[in-house]
Amino acid sequence: MVILRPFVDKQTILNFAKRYPELDIASIETCLAFLHTTADVYQALDVHFARYGLSRGKFTLLMQLYLADEQGLTPSECAQRAGVTKATITGLLDGLERDGLVRRQPDSEDRRMLRLQLTDKGRGFLSQMLPDHFCRTTGLMANLTDSEKKILIKLLNKVRTGTSAMLDA
Question: Structure pTM?
Fold first, then answer.
């Protein structure tokens, strides 16, 4: 997924506001700041995960399996949890399986179904990687106080509730 950085400046927003009276300048500026930050964070995550030969998708799948019980998860469960298609999961799995981090096993109760599990190599890989990952995540948020982090979570949850405005027909 390519994330483009917003390129609109304050003057452009003001010019649009003259043409479109329904435009709320503060809303547009806030949205653009959010999008710019999102693009920067995604870029930083991509660089970080690339150090380990991962993508954000592969990392997400590895973490799902790391947190699952010993039975593992089905590809459909992984897709639903990640909010992607089963085909997307299949593509991620192919690479992770090739790297020896994940295995596909027939379900013990229904041989038509597959269960996904981390291999010992996959568990070891994550055990080595996660300390660095958590330190870098802490560094990402280092400029915020604990109070600001709580406020940011609340604000982001409020923004998430507004996404339906973009989705409604």
Answer: 0.85
